[in-house]
Amino acid sequence: MSGFKDSQEANFRRMVRQAVRKGDFTKGERDVTLTVINMWFHHKGGPKPYIHPGREKIAKKAGVTVKTVSRCLSMLRSAGVLVAVNGLSGGGKIATKYTVNVWSLMTLCGCDWVDEFMRGRGENVPLSSAEMSHCRRDKMSHSNIGTFKPAFAKGGSNA
Fold this sequence. Notes:
The protein is mainly α. The chain contains seven helices and two strands, in the order ααααββααα. Strands 1-2 form a two-stranded antiparallel sheet. The radius of gyration is 16 Å and the shape is globular.
């Protein structure tokens, strides 16, 4: 019996987090994005299909100011990474409810193979451990994060 650390979901989460770490973000944007993504991974399988973090809570977890969080959330919304379910118009102390588009995040991080992947076989194709090895910290750099194309993507190669 294998544990969660060996599952495809764990491999996918590692790949997304690594893409964020290697993306072209400032330190504050990176920390806020990782905080939001970790919240999403933690809550996406729960009874509510959204997250509703407050800016103050994100700022505390990410170790940044509330203004940095606001700027980063705005950037993520405009990039299509955060999709507001409701509450975007404001309302005092009510947090906006979001879903996260991980594929838009990967594109924002510079993974240009995502578009080809999405046009190819869809988003439910599992990644093999050989394909995931390209996304490990010791093998990934800014120069190759955008050129990795999984073998299952249309026309993709691992070379």
